[in-house]
Amino acid sequence: MNLEQLRSFVEVARIGHFTRAAAQLHLAQPSLSRQISALEADLGTELFHRVRGNISLTAAGESLLPLATRMLADAEAVRHEMQELAGLGRGRVRLGATPTLCLSLVAEVLVAFHASYPGIGLHLSEGGSRGLLEDLAGGALDLALITTSEEGAPRGNLERIPLLTEELVVISAAASPVLGRGGALSLAQLARLPQITFHESYDVRAATMAAFAQAGLTPHIVLEGSEMDAVLRCVERGLGVAVVPAMVLADRPGLRAVRLRGAGLDRTISLAHRADVPLSRAARAMRDLVISTAHALAISTPEGEALIARPAPAH
Q1: Of 120, 217, 244, 265, which has the fewest CB atoms closer than 10 Å, so is most exposed?
Q2: pLDDT digits (tens, 9 = 90+) for 25-50
Q3: Is the pTM of this model over 0.70?
């Protein structure tokens, strides 16, 4: 078994077609087929069902896929680390983050990182926290900025560094009287307002819906399943209100915010990485910058303001 065979296996599993996978790998199809056959012979089991041109994974193939993906990612990490040590290249960092953090903390970090390390390649993946943790465990990411509505233990071989605790606030159009002149809303008052909710993959939506359910309330939803940019634009146009992380309001004069009274809605922002694989020098530099930027953000946001970002308790 070798890395080329594993790479061929993963590509066929991803595409579901030998000919297209061969083209993607710049191989002749017979060469690809021989690699898969050799891998199956070495492992002593079939990895694909081949029925009338249809390709699907066997049970053994399903078990091998996450392991093969991780082995390839680890091999790539080793190669980049050796390039750094040998002076052949300056590295690469693969950072994952939730969409809401990409609008705030991540943008600050990437600009500062590129200014300090212009030769290091950057790759950013957006997704929900659960998917990012899966990508991290599978070796597709070096670091992941995730959010959780409550503290929890790291999963498996992942290490999590709590950075900030951020409040969830209610936003409306700046010119709209819908939020009134009060400094806060109760959950019951919020439930009666026309509300825009995020796509179900967003942690913010899950936390908000759980709070409504626990209080026995049914929110008045006028638009459901939107992404962050669409939610903010629709709120600015006056379609309804939304519950968002406080940090996304930075540089958005078309929005106003009030706090949720007694709802206890906040989230912890953490930086996660694999504990069983050493970070490359580039990834370590990114980790340190993320931590220092989050710390500076917490210091610059006074506790009494609507935009709340305070240091998270150490895990």
Answers
A1: 217
A2: 888 888 899 999 999 999 999 999 98
A3: no
